[in-house]
Design goal:
The complex is a heterodimer of chains A (756) and B (282). Chain A is of the alpha/beta class and 756 residues long. Chain A is 52% helix and 18% strand. Chain A has 23 helices and 22 strands. In chain A, the strands form four sheets. Chain A has an eight-stranded mixed beta barrel with strand order 13-14-16-17-18-19-20-21, surrounded by seven helices. In chain B, helix 8 links the parallel strand 9 and strand 10. Chain B has 282 residues and is α/β, with parallel strands linked by helices. The radius of gyration of chain B is 18 Å and the shape is globular. In chain B, the strands form two sheets. In chain B, strands 1-2-4-3-5-6-9-10 form an eight-stranded mixed β-sheet, with helices on both faces. In chain B, strands 7-8 form a two-stranded antiparallel ribbon. Chain B contains nine helices and ten strands. Classes of the chains: A alpha/beta (756), B alpha/beta (282).
Chain lengths: 756, 282
């Protein structure tokens, strides 16, 4: 049995008092038991004492009678009556008693030598007229006789006229009311005198010597003992009652003086713990135990101090909370504040439905700006952006910096139109900002994703951040308006769905690399137009549908999954190359993000992959639009890869912010002109001339040029004439899955063989 | 003188140390006894009689008897039976006194006769208190010729309470005349409740001062009275009355009725002096 760890003091008091009562009861019971034992022993002792006392009394009476008879036998007046009996009756009835020879319970008769009584006794206790036969002639004889319930002792004795006992002149006979004389002669202390009986049938007699054996008696109950026992019992009972009353009083006092105050203290402490303690009651009655009163006093003081401290802490906490909720850089609310407010808003909106808009802001190409102009200026850009957004928002709207260049705002009691209007005001105010003061010449823009939840759809309010995120990525897409409202049209809705679906697809593909399906698009060499490379393009097969890079790359980018995704792509390329189903000598171009090129695990895998270089020249394409934050590391790794026979290509050249810087800092072998530049070549204007001149300049600088997006023969001839060494586009071939490509190559090889 | 007597007693002690208890049947069923101390036969035998209701064991007579025996005198110390067989104890006042002066005289007579039968022809009667009266009554009745002298010590008459003796005597006589034998309780001598049949009581009551003085005056033998001058049991004028009638008397200064507390020697001295004055031819 497990004992309770804590017991209320009231129960302890009850247990203690009960224990004391039980103990006292046991002691009392033991004392009573012992008392009864003592009483029993005393009764036995009394019985023995009574027997001794009675035997002594009987013997004493016998001796007394004998002595009396001897005295009477020797008494001159006895002899006188036997000789001169004229006044015998007077002597018998009066003289004997006046002289003290006999007690009033005894009678005497004198018998002459003829054994005849001197004079018959006419009283009630008359003696026989003839000397009884039991009497011995010359010696005293005594016997007892039951005479109708009265025990009579007879003592017969001879009377001689001379001292030498020679002349017998008669006999004396004493009759004694034995019991009366016995009681008269003795003061019995231990014998119950009323119980003294002689076991003798009426009329029967027995020798006096057998008297003791036949006497029956009871011991007297010692009155002192009974009195003591009664007093003891009463004292015990009184003690028990006193103890019970004392225990009850003690319990009440204990309850009043200790338990109640302690309970009050406990309740006060509980109230303190729950923050409900009122330390300023109106004149609380003081506790009667000074220590408890001190504790209560200390507790109240402590509570006062605690409350003051709590107030101080509350104040400090508010400050800290305010500081903790504020973004140090921009002064707007930070992510913590966002999370707290968003949680609170959701509950409030669910309780009081209203229209809510969630605005997500993201600075376009901020990382490249940051990297190009330094963190200080990047921070300043963020500050200006935040200032502009705060200015654009309504007075009660809050701007949160979620991290990096991402901001959010939650607009309560609004409509989609108002939200869009506010977003556009944000764009306008931001456009009005003069970033050139910071030495930044590139335009600073933000993409704004808006998600709206109507009052009757508050159940879907939790989806707002994700919807705003999707809308923002939609807004970021090239050619899109920089403000996108989730659910604006079917296309966006579809994109939204895809985007939502592709997020899961990306994560599943990373977990299951087989979902990444590599498609290969031929890159033809110029001017021979033979296939020099196949560009490996990643697709994700998700639920039997292909998800294109335009859809999943933003997810990869936003989730910072570039390295993992590139590793998966490399694995698939490696598998395809290892299958050795591509013709020897045909190279493979692999697209890598700028972030991956500085990752050791990517470089390490590329070095491993370089074993295919002997059969398939490998080229790495790095998009010019992607931000290379660690240029030095990237250059080091690219140099290393070049030693492993990799060619380095700058992809999407002409779409980014710092094409010349990358060309200058990185060991680039091939520059792939973006389709936007290639399309300019078909025009006949200054832009076309610039591109043409630039291409020639690049070629003359030793770069190999690749033209992307070749869809017409004209464009192909143009780039061919300009000296581009490689070209790709739908004119030359669409991207094909590896299997189809292999099948196509096999068919072509078969056809070539057949033609040959 | 006392020292000489003491030495005399010591010197005679071995020679006369003969004593016996003598029993005599006085009346049918009544046997009395006496101590018989045999002394010098040339000296008179002394019959010492105890006082009222006493025995020969009473100290006054016992001591004197022993001293006289020690002095060479034959001494007989009888105990009057008072009608009790072999009486050994003093008879208490409240006892039934079935004895009379006549029976006392008869017993004295018997003891005098017994002494004579033992060859004592000169007998001196010595009585103490009431015994002196009983011996005086004996002398007044029919004394034996062998009785030669009489010594009465603390002689006293039969005293009764303040009631008139004559009335009492008349009452007793009336009872006797009417054969009323019921016991009568009367203050007699030093007994407040003396219980006796009328005739027996009367036998003592008649011995008043007058009869006693007459008996003293008419005594037939030589007489000597020895009286203590501190005796409060006798009447105030009793000694004077005795002196008035010319009774020879020795006074023992300071002695009470019992002649004790050192006056035993005075009693003995006076007794011996008296005995020594008796002529041998008497």
């Amino acid at each position: 049995m497990k004992l309770p760890t804590s017991v209320p003091i009231k129960q302890i008091a009850l247990i203690f008092i009960s224990s004391v009562l039980v103990l006292v009861s046991l002691i009392g019971g033991f004392a009573l038991h012992e008392m009864r034992n003592v009483s029993r022993n005393l009764m036995q002792s009394n019985q023995a004492l009574a027997r001794t006392e009675l035997v002594t009394a009987v013997e004493h009476l016998s001796n007394h009678i004998k002595s009396q008879a001897d005295t009477l036998a020797r008494w001159d007046e006895t002899r006188q009556q036997l000789v001169v009996p004229e006044y015998y009756s007077y002597w018998r009835d009066q003289r004997v008693y006046e002289s003290g020879m006999l007690s009033r319970f005894a009678r005497i008769a004198l018998y002459g030598q003829s054994d005849a009584i001197l004079s018959p006794d006419t009283t009630k206790n008359s003696l026989p007229t003839k000397l009884p036969a039991e009497a011995s002639p010359h010696s005293p004889t005594s016997w007892v006789q039951n005479e109708a319930g009265v025990v009579a002792l007879y003592y017969a004795f001879p009377v001689y006229s001379d001292g030498r006992r020679l002349a017998l002149i008669g006999h004396g006979l004493i009759r004694l009311d034995y019991m009366a004389e016995l009681l008269n002669q003795n003061r019995f202390r231990f014998t119950d005198t009323a119980s003294i009986k002689l076991a003798l049938e009426p009329g029967a007699s027995l020798p006096a010597s057998d008297l003791v054996k036949n006497i029956r008696f009871d011991a007297r109950t010692d009155p002192d003992q009974i009195r003591f026992q009664r007093l003891f019992s009463r004292a015990l009972l009184a003690l028990l009652l006193l103890l019970v009353v004392t225990a009850l009083l003690g319990f009440v006092v204990h309850n009043r003086l200790l338990v109640r105050p302690l309970r009050q203290l406990s309740e006060d402490i509980d109230a303190m713990r729950q923050g409900k303690f009122d330390s300023s009651p109106e004149q609380p009655s003081p506790m009667q135990i000074s220590e408890l009163e001190n504790i209560r006093h200390s507790l109240v003081n402590y509570q006062h101090q605690l409350r003051e401290l709590h107030g101080s802490l509350e104040h400090q906490n508010r400050e800290f909370r305010s500081q903790a909720r504020q973004d140090v850089l921009t002064g707007c609310y930070n992510r913590r504040a966002y999370e707290e407010d968003w949680t609170r808003f959701r509950e409030e909106i669910k309780a009081v439905p209203q229209g809510v808009a969630f605005l997500l802001f993201d600075c376009d190409r901020f990382k490249s700006i940051n990297d190009t102009y330094g963190h200080a200026k990047g921070d300043r850009v963020l500050t200006l952006i935040a200032d502009a957004l705060v200015m654009a928002l309504r007075a009660n709207d809050r701007l949160y910096r979620l991290g990096g260049d991402e901001f959010a705002a939650i607009l309560l009691r609004t409509t989609p139109a108002q939200a869009r209007q506010i977003a556009q005001r944000c764009q306008s105010l931001l456009d009005a900002k003069k970033f050139s003061d910071l030495g930044i010449n590139e335009p600073i823009s933000i993409s704004i994703g808006i998600a709206f939840c109507a009052a009757d759809q508050v159940a879907h309010i939790d989806e707002l951040p994700k919807q705003a995120d999707i809308a923002m990525y939609t807004a970021k897409q090239p050619g899109r308006n920089r403000v996108a409202l989730f659910g604006d049209d079917v296309e966006r809705a579809s994109q939204t769905l895809v985007a939502s679906r592709e997020t899961s697809a990306v994560f599943q593909a990373l977990a299951t690399p087989n979902m990444i399906e590599m498609h290969y698009q031929a890159i033809h060499g110029l001017p021979g137009r033979e296939v020099k490379y196949y560009e490996a393009l990643a697709r994700i097969r998700y639920h039997d549908k292909l998800i294109m890079p335009a859809a999943f790359l933003p997810v990869v980018s936003s989730r910072r999954l570039e390295t993992s995704f590139d590793l998966a792509v490399l694995q698939q390329v490696d598998l395809n190359l290892s299958s050795k189903q591509l013709p020897d000598g045909v190279g493979v171009c692999i697209n890598l993000t700028a972030q991956s090129i500085s990752q050791p695990e990517i470089v390490s895998y590329l070095l491993e992959l370089s074993r295919h270089n002997t059969r398939h020249p490998l080229m790495i394409e790095i998009a010019e639009t992607s931000l290379i934050t660690q240029v030095d590391a990237a250059r080091t790794y690219l140099d290393l890869l070049r030693t492993a026979q990799y060619r380095i290509a700058m992809d999407d050249f002409g779409t980014g912010h710092s094409p010349l810087r990358y060309l200058a800092d990185l060991p680039v072998d091939v520059v792939k002109f973006d389709i936007s530049l290639v399309s300019k070549l078909e025009e006949n204007n200054r832009a076309a001339q610039v591109v043409t001149d630039f291409a020639r300049m690049m070629i003359s600088a030793g770069y190999s040029l690749t033209a992307e997006g070749i869809e017409t023969e004209t464009a192909l001839r143009k780039v061919e004439s300009m000296g581009f060494s490689l070209a790709q586009g739908f004119l030359l071939g669409h991207p094909l899955p590896f299997g189809q490509l292999v099948a196509q190559l096999a068919t072509k090889e078969s056809d070539d063989a057949h033609q040959a | 003188m006392r020292i000489k007597l003491f030495c005399l007693l010591i010197g005679f002690l071995p020679a006369v140390a003969q004593a016996a208890i003598i029993d005599l049947d006085m009346r049918p069923g009544i046997r009395a006894n006496a101590e018989y101390l045999v002394g010098d036969r040339s000296k008179p035998a002394v019959l010492l009689l105890h006082g009222f209701l006493q025995t020969r064991e009473f100290s006054t007579v016992a001591t004197l008897g022993s001293s006289l025996h020690d002095a060479g005198y034959t001494v007989l110390l009888p105990t009057l039976s008072l009608n009790i067989p072999n009486r050994k104890q003093s008879l208490v006042c409240e006892a039934i006194h079935q004895h009379s002066m006549e029976e006392d005289i008869a017993e004295i007579t018997r003891w005098v006769s017994w002494l004579k039968s033992r060859g004592h022809q000169r007998i001196v009667l010595f009585g103490h208190s009431f015994g002196s009266l009983q011996l005086l009554a004996y002398l007044n009745a029919r004394p034996d010729p062998a009785v030669k002298a009489y010594v009465g010590t603390s002689l006293i008459e039969t005293r009764i309470a303040s009631s008139s003796r004559n009335t009492l005597i008349a009452d007793l006589n009336d009872r006797i005349e009417h054969k009323q034998t019921d016991l009568v309780t009367q203050s007699v001598s030093f007994c407040n409740k003396y219980t006796a049949p009328p005739d027996d009581l009367l036998s003592y009551v008649v011995w008043d001062e007058t009869r006693t003085l007459k008996a003293v005056k008419t005594r037939p033998v030589r007489m000597q009275l020895i009286m203590g001058d501190a005796d409060e049991m006798i009447g105030r004028n009793w000694v004077k009355a005795l002196q008035h009638i010319g009774a020879p008397m020795n006074h023992v200064r300071g002695a009470n009725h019992f002649m004790d507390a050192g006056h035993e020697f005075d009693l003995l001295e006076h007794t011996l002096n008296f005995l020594q004055t008796l002529p041998v031819s008497l």
